[in-house]
Amino acid sequence: MSRIFKKILIIGTTLIAILLFYNIVIFTITNSAYSYKIILGKNTKFDSLFNPNFIDSISVTSVVGNEYEQIYFYNYSDNYRIVIWNISGFIGIDLSKNHLFIVDDLRSVVFPNKNYSDIGRYTLSSRLSPLVLKKINVYAEKGMDLISHEESKYFSYMDISSRGIAIGNKEEFVIKLESDEMIHYNIGFINGQSGFQLIIISKDQGEIIEDNLFFKLFRLQSTQIRSAQKKTKQSARPDSNWDLCT
């Protein structure tokens, strides 16, 4: 083997090693930036969203997140879990244009790298990258039951029983709730002065959430309430955005 060839081989191997090391460093830094960490000292940030009549019965258990998103976990009474997910990358979304799609199996929604939280009866996961959307599309499995819904430009709400939902689009999902059983959820989307929040209410035990619990616990801005139009399965317009899409 000639000296020139040996030098070329050494240089090539060195360059490959440097490139590999660079990619590992970039991957590690990127993942570290988007991975969830325990957040201390901001437990009361979203207390103003709650109805003051119920705030004494609501306690924050933990807060996790990163620079771009934060998830607040609460307990209400002895049997309810509340999640408030603040997402800075959901900007300028018109919540009156939400759509609900039906899919055969949510297990087909897989994130190659993800953040993951176990809420008890269901798991909550998200793409390990900035969560960015221009429109809210919700995907639920066949067999789900959409009980009622509301939508306006700044507020949207679903009362739904399902094994879970995914949020995003067919090309790129960003958030997923999943369970092995049918669970009754109250799910709200708020695009307000404090940013964008995804709110999830579920029960530790039992199947049915108390009627209108979401609207009892949360103090929505009057403009959001006035502009929201409530629909049930009996009164929903055929062209309503939350009607089922395929």
Summarize the structure in words.
- The chain has 246 residues and is α+β, with helices and mostly antiparallel strands.
- The chain folds into two domains: 1-34; 37-245, no CATH class.
- 17% of the residues lie in helices and 41% in strands.
- It is built from three helices and 14 strands.
- It has helices at 3-34, 213-217, 222-227, and strands spanning 37-38, 58-65, 69-76, 80-87, 99-103, 114-118, 123-127, 137-141, 145-151, 155-168, 173-192, 195-203, 229-232, 244-245.
- Strands 1, 2, 3, 4, 5, 6, 7, 8, 9, 10, 11, 12, 13 and 14 form a 14-stranded mixed β-sheet that branches.
- The protein is globular and about 85 Å long.
CA-based gyration radius: 22 Å
Shape: globular
What's the number of domains? 2
**What are the secondary-structure elements, in order, as H or E?**
HEEEEEEEEEEEEHHEE
Strand coverage percent? 35-45%
Largest sheet report: 14 strands, mixed
Structural class: alpha+beta
Number of strands: 14
Given as residue ranges, the uncertain stretches (5+ residues, pLDDT < 50) are 19-33, 222-240
**What is the straight-line distance between the termini?**
64 Å
Percent in helix: 10-25%
Q: Average pLDDT value? A: 76
